[in-house]
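Running log. JK asked me to keep both predictions on one page so they can be read side by side. First protein, sequence followed by its tokens:
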Amino acid sequence: MSGRIVCFGELLLRLNAPGRELLLQSGVLQVHVGGAEANVAIGLSSLGRDCAMVSAVPDNALGRGAVAALRARGVDCAGVRTLPGRMGLYFMTTGAGSRASEIVYDRTASSFARAKSGDFDWDALLHGAALFHLSGIVPALGPASVEVARQAVRAARALGVPVSFDGNYRAQLWSAWDSTPAPILRDLIDHADLLFGNHRDLSLVLGRSFGGEGESRRREAADAAFAAFPRLKLMASTARDIEDADCHRIAARVDLRDGFAQTPAVRVTGIVDRIGAGDAFAAGVLHAWLKGGTADELARTGLALTCLKHTLPGDASVFREADIAAFHEGGLDVRR
């Protein structure tokens, strides 16, 4: 399947303590441009896909810099509005050993969070699109963002554009306002063709728990999702076992209505930066899905990109098809 992939979400600046320092330990911060949906757009663009970003930023150096960073990676930013408000930020301390990474959000009253339904012409933005991608972070930003997300997925449905939705539950964001995430997320997922999430996401959305362990629990959750959401065709997720901040074991899974594929776990060591690994996984799965790949190909491509993302500073995967092939071939000697 060819055509433009449209991603919708907030562009953010990440301010990171250098190395493994605590925030403000040395008074120095490193800046990366990110945002869950923007990360997916960059990941897909790096794989040769035609991608467009829809968002809102302030008309200042921070907003212009974020847009320029996406354009530099080949993402069409004609759909990024400049609106009143401020740039959304988040601060991160990178974990080490037995100390976990930690994030502090600073995105209240950002231009994106203040955007309203009438700020986006969805018929024009989605015209001719092959896929529309957004995540649960969009509605988590407040009531206005909930309505914008609802308008977007309904427009996609009306235009016959497949919808990809990543659960991306962020408790800190939902708890910042008088929210009821389960029915909001359920309404959005009801429009989705592809869902990124696991049994924990489905427990929240469907208000039920899933028994068992491992593969059986994941299949039970997938069956519940397919029963609850008639349009849903595919559910993809990763399983992560954390030994410490520098060593994780990661497996990928794709569930279809009539089958599934699950990869063996890969031990990822010497982790440089795990932020955006889930978005890299989504980009890999969507890339393989757009190529008409099998469930196994989707899972393996997503796993390759999520593992590779752990080796790269910053929020987004910028790897190419050749990097995915090299990952599957193995071997760590210098490529000459």
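And the second, directly underneath as requested:
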Amino acid sequence: MNYTLNNGITIPKVGFGTWQIPGGEECYRAVSEALKSGYTHIDTAACYGNEESVGKAIQDSNLHRDNLFITTKLWNTDRGFEKALKAFEHSLDKLALDYVDLYLIHWPANKKQFNNWNEINQETWKALETLYNEGKVKAIGLSNFMPAHIQGVLDICKIKPAVNQIEFHPGYTQDKTVDFCRGKNILIEAWSPLGSGRVLEHPFLQEIATKYKTNVATLCLSFILQSGHVVLPRSQNPINIRANLIKSPIQLSKEDFHSISSMENAGASGLHPDTVDF
């Protein structure tokens, strides 16, 4: 199951997230299990501290590189043109790869921290365009960017962002950002698709899951896929790793899909791009 990005590159609809999986043996085991289970899309980031472990699991899997889709992200302390270029090379070395499939700006600079936040984001984006033009990345995009941040990039870009990776799950669907991205042909990737586990005990979701004879995790992932987004579930449990690689998503009725879309806020992390101070 793949989507096609706005530059023609295909991206698997289900990826394996590695946020909060410590670098070292834990991450190596989890990514190895994911690759063994059939995941071909692995998502990491410089700030996760596990790029080296992800890279080792990829190397040891003996899977052909062309059949894998690997994403990493630029951390906030490395924004700006020159710093971003250096940070990318550092990530590439840790991953032990010749290229990455998708490189993202992890968080936008915001007005809470910087008077020139827009210029910082724009200069950082120019670095990603340079990497793209050099063939070191197959696609470039954003993470946690809201419409005002995205528009600043669109105002100067020569290469349009392919992706915006945002927190998205039942109870937190960020409709304004999603609608803006859809209008610009920017694909949404959902991080924390299960609300980091916070929505799994939600009575309303449990009720709908029972109706479809499934569990809440499968219901949430199916809802996100039916919304047209990439899902990036994360787990260190081999059973859950395999279960989250949904090959036959549930098809929700229009009524149930709308009901889930209209849920009150639930399970959100509280991390807002305009107010974070990291």
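Observation for JK regarding the second prediction: The chain has one domain: 2-198+228-247.
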